[in-house]
Amino acid sequence: MKHPEDRPSSSGASQDLPEIDPNRPASPGKPQRLLLGWLFMTLMATELLARMTDNNVAQTGAWVAMAAVILASARKIGLREVYLLCLSAVLSWAVWQFSPTPQQDLAGALSQATFLMAFILLLGLLHEAAGSSPSVEALGRFLARQPAGRRFYALFSGSGIMSILFNLGVVSFLVPLIQRGIRSTDPTDPLNPIRERRQVSALLRGFAWCVIWSPTAVAPLALLELIPDVDRKLWILIGFLLFLLFMVVGAIEDRVRFRAYRPRAKQQRPIFPRMATAKFALACGWLFGPSILISNLLDETIIFGLMATCPLMLVGWLVVQNWNGGKVDLVPVGRRLKEIALDSIPQSARVAVTLGCSGFIGRAGSALVPADDVAQALGLANIPDFLLLSALPPLLASMSLFGLSPIMTAVFFGSFFGKLPVMPTDPTLLALSISMGWAMSILLSPLATPVLMINRVGGYAPTTLTWRWNLLYGVLSMLAAVPIFALLTTIVG
Question: Is residue 325 situated within a structural domain?
Fold first, then answer.
């Protein structure tokens, strides 16, 4: 018997599946937009300089630029950002009053905030370049128009792989394609709401689990800064294998849940875009090749290499797109760069402020916790490794229900464990466990940034996306974590 919430209406619409709204939130006024654009570019430049030189003046410049960004974004931010800023202020006072090393702790929190803010802005440059690429659009349409039997796998894996270049932008890119593809094929089909639900859920799940393996995901790169002795290559390998495992689990759950539904007609399989796929793979190589080269030449981390490569890749991608007759048409390249710097980047103000505050709160909050004393009181050293690692993901997911963003809790726990003189378990598996908690927070928290972004571009209620559509899958993922870590601690630990 079909559950009432799954039963398609006769009109082909659902109260949870709104019509596409072409209207978008108004962008800031031109003076504010120009100011934000220059401030964001200053922040990115000073943060890169600070990380390359370890210069205190450059780092202070990044802090000042971040403060100026927050002030200039006053009319742009919403209640969530105001709440996070107030919490940051309270924690700053608490650290100053109660921490034995307040200046060092606040400096670390500010540096974490500028790092995350600059990182998401620099990754956004990849989104801007890829967003105007015909090859990327061809790949997106191919994923969204797969036959029913392959659609879940295509969207799950496709959103995860495309997030390497798009990051959060893959959500705003693919959701409208899914909606247009379904509603343009047969607007009167009563199964359209079910198709939207299944495809958007597959997209969200694939994006959520990409954070445990993607080389450009914010979660791993933030944790690498906090937890010592993490083997990033091993983390990527294990994370990718788990990504495939959770894809199969999700596909089975999706098929069982909707087994009573059958399409009215056989769908035509789209042609695989070989050239577009090859160009996308080339772009990925273009990103990681220079990143590795820069990090090795300057004896820096791969994180710095990625951050430094993003502006270079943006310019290179635009040059390729405007290469005609053996030469580059510089006018459209310059016009597009100006548009990105002074119009597109300022639109990221809310996300940048949210991530910056989350990083600050996580780092400052951990400074108030005596990590060694708490670890001894909880007996972390006596807890079996697989139980500790299995408990962290649901703990992080439950904390996100109280308004704490996934990155905030991840930074908090990363800082907490990073301060311990002796790790209670293998550091690579610990970082993997925390990133799995990040993924589960995206699936289960209505306040997670990707969920709010899908709500903005697609109109789906956050509680519908998480609790109604993905709660069962999230619980299954939590249960699966126990045998997974029991096996991994035997092999790795």
Answer: yes
Domain count, the chain: 1
Q: Is there a domain that residue 454 lies in?
A: yes
Cα(164)–Cα(405) distance, integer angstroms: 21
Q: How far apart are the first and last CA of the chain?
A: 46
Query: Encoding tokens for residue 209?
Result: 């689990």
User: Is the pLDDT confidence value at 70 over 50?
Assistant: yes
Q: Is 234 exposed, middle or buried (0-12, 13-18, 19+ CB in 10 A)?
A: middle
What are residue 328's DSSP bridge partners? 323
Asked whether the beta carbons of 87 and 357 are under 8 A apart, the reply is yes
**φ and ψ at 198, to 5 degrees?**
-70, -40
Nearest CA-CA partner of 397 in 431, 443, 466:
443
Residues β-bridged to residue 327? 324
φ, ψ of residue 17 in degrees (nearest 5): -120, 85
Rounded CA separation 309/324 (Å): 25
The answer to whether 88 and 364 have CB atoms below 8 angstroms apart is yes
416 alpha carbon, distance to own chain's centre? 22
Euclidean distance between CA atoms 43 and 146, whole angstroms: 42
Q: Is 254:202 a contact under the CB 8 Å cutoff?
A: yes
Q: Is residue 48 situated within a structural domain? A: yes
The tens digit of pLDDT for each residue in 381-440 reads 889 999 999 999 999 999 887 767 788 888 899 999 998 988 999 999 999 999 999 999
Buried b / exposed e over 134-158, threshold 16 CB at 10 Å, is: ebbbbbbbbbbbbebeebbbbbbbb
Q: How far is CA 451 from CA 150, 171, 404, in A?
A: 24, 9, 14
Residue 38 belongs to some domain of the structure: yes
| pLDDT above 70 coverage of the chain, percent | 89
DSSP state of 353: H
Strand partners, 114: none
> Virtual CA dihedral for 164, 408, 114, 66, nearest 10 degrees?
120
Q: Show the domain range for 75.
A: 28-260+274-491
Helix residue ranges, H only, 211-273: 218-224, 232-257
Distance, CA of 95 to chain centre: 29
Cα–Cα distance measured from residue 16 to residue 14, given in angstroms and rounded to the nearest whole number? 5
Task: Residue 39: name the closest of 74, 12, 15, 69 by CA.
Answer: 69
The DSSP output letter for 242 is H
pTM of whole model > 0.90?
A: no
What is the C-alpha separation between 481 and 493, in angstroms, rounded? 16
Report the percent of the chain where pLDDT is more than 90. 37
CA distances from 76 to 82, 88, 349 (A): 11, 18, 7
- pLDDT for res 10: 38
